[in-house]
Amino acid sequence: MKATYKNVHTHIFTMDNAPEKFLQLFLPKPIANAVDTATNSQLGVLLLSGLIAKMGAQGKRYAQFLKIGKSKDQGTVFEELMAQYSDTTMEMVALTINMNYMGIGATRSGFEGQLQQVIDIKRRYPERLLLFLGLDPRWQQSGTDIRKEVERYFETKIDSGGRSIYPFAGLKIYPSTGFYAFDTKLKETFAWAADNGVPVLSHTNYLGGIFNNNKTDIEQNLNPVNPYTGVQYHQPKFINKKSRKEWVTGSNLTNNCQRSCSYFLEPSSFESVLNHFNNSANPLKICFAHFGGSEQMLAAMNGTQNEEQAHPYGVKDVNWFTQIQELMATYPGAYTDISYNVAEGVSDEQQKLFKAFHAESNKPYGHKIMFGTDFFLAEKESPEKNTYEAFRSFASPITLANGNNFWDQIARTNTHAFLESKYY
Amino acid sequence: MNLFNLPIIEIALSLIISWALFAIFCSLLQETMVQLKNERGRFFKQQLLRQLNDAPNQINWASLLYTHPSFNILSRAYNKPASEISAKTFSEALIEVVATAHKVQSKKLDTELIGSLPASQYENPLLNDFALATKVLVPSELVALLASSLNKAEIRAGVAKDRTDDKVYNLLVEEISDWFNQLSSRTSVWYRKLTKRRLFFLGLILSVALNINSIALFQYFSKNPAARTALITYYENNKTHLEVMAQKYDQSAGPNDTIPLKEIKKDVLLLKTKIDSLVAANEIPIGWKNKVKKEPLQHLSVWNKIGNVLIALIGFVLTAFAASAGAPFWFELLKKAYTLKK
What we know:
- The structure holds 2 protein chains of 2 kinds.
- Chain A is of the alpha/beta class.
- Helices cover 43% and strands 10% of the residues of chain A.
- Chain A contains 19 helices and 10 strands.
- In chain A, helix 7 (187-196) links the parallel strand 6 and strand 7 (200-202).
- The longest helix of chain A is centred in the N-terminal third of the chain and has 15 residues, at 57-71.
- Chain A is globular and about 55 Å long.
- The model of chain A has no long low-confidence stretch (mean pLDDT 92).
- Chain B has 15 helices and 2 strands.
- In chain B, strand 1 and strand 2 form a beta hairpin.
- In chain B, helix 1 (7-36) packs across helix 10 (165-209).
- Classes of the chains: A alpha/beta, B mainly alpha.
- The interface between A and B is medium-sized, with 32 and 30 residues.
């Protein structure tokens, strides 16, 4: 086993790799367009960042997020990420995402352009960077074509410092962009992944992150036949929640799209996939990133008055944190990570989230919980350096019930087990 | 009779000289903003991103070019891309980026596809992989362009037995360079149009902010022969210097980020000082403090007030159009007028 610690969840993509209307997912359209135009130059980024930074600590972090995403290339973003770590051997998993099918236009660099950029960075930093290839069933015409492309991308070695190395170490899926993990076009690729030990990491943050912003697209994809069970997934329906506040800000449709995309993301929708591979020779390793999201974690632990958190959108009406706990307890291939939540936990003096991670790591599935931060998206919660140092300081003195050091377990042992494959 | 001594000709000359000076001033400010925003480089990059977006292959080749070492080294920073790239640099980088793309390299594992293609005819791996790329990438306009360039290079290189890798490569670079030069010319034209529009809006903002009203100026010059003479004399004494400045800041001349900002600042101050002294000495109605005194508004009817506002607006718009025509245009006109005078 490699002795290095790993951050299993980071992003180094820039707005160059995102669709042109990306900001419309987070801001009302006129403001998104104004911000996009204003930040087309370094001067605009600085001015806007400066303005936002005056809005307190939260503003400062949004400003940092804007500066990273808008004004740099992926190589520079990765170098900035590495610079946050005093441990110069720490490996970073960088997750690529195919954002061409989110209903907000094509990406500037192209998805395979994004892949080429990260491969070039891997050549320069073979020992620090681990790449996950973004997988989307809409990428190619058929499931076989997808599997062939993925296999070729993985198998084609690249030259780095006189050595030939595999460029990719895993697969990333982002179902809330409009597909289910059980999509028939992903089945062959998952079978290949299971056979070769290739891990899959899925975004699973309830009502967080990116999503498909095209209502028609969502509606057309909500009720497919599950190829693992042969049964139609009939329960999901487009959520048409009415909100006057959202109507005034012009964000009602966008927010309803986000709510509806929860069906694609719901942890229990993965069960048929996990079950299928559980019964085969090699269990497929799937990481349910973010442990369902910090709000779901806290809602499960302490209860909540928030209706959307108490009854999360989805088929099961069960807390997502709880769903992931159950999946990890049942399926050997089910993992999770603490990314983004760990950044949110930094500012909590009572360390509720950190303590929750510790408690979970002492449970029977504790060997499947991994360290990740969600850089750079989590910059608006806490700078990466602070997140890493705060959590490492918390975890390092702790010995788990199994006798292992908490930090070693979550950042080395568990991450290595997840990543171990033909390609790593 | 000397036509140039006719009042109407002197009024026209004075107005044109005013427009020319204003146009230089706008060009100076425009150049300052362009350099601060690194606009020429970004505009050029935008056009390349548009032209080299290969949607069927899901790659924007321009995006990859800008992280290629030969492009990177020419740029001040990622968001300050170079405004001038030689055709040879572009062509060589594009050939390398396409040939070495992982998408192309990974196709070598598709034994069925590779088996169906003719055997490679080049010893040089880069040229070989480029030829492969034109066959294995998803057909697109850009791939067709690259394939066509290679075909032409092969034809120009002569029959197969006389063809060397070196010869084909150099001709391929020439073919792609030719395309790039055409694109660069088109980009210059598009940039000139954009600049004209920007000069118009800058001219409009400045004419309102500084009260440079063409109609008011015309009326003033009509009644003030001394002011006309002063302006014409100023032009005749400073013709060469002004024409040089106009050419220097000619926004339509294409990429020119070589004028340091300090020099632009110096020229702005110099010009402003000269214009201020001309305005002060001759009480030219520029600036809101020096505006032409008219009958107090409260004595006018509503229609007269509206009329005055409309005339003022037309005057500002005319000034803005004058700015957008560019200073070289006005100086050229003055040159022709003086040639006729002789």
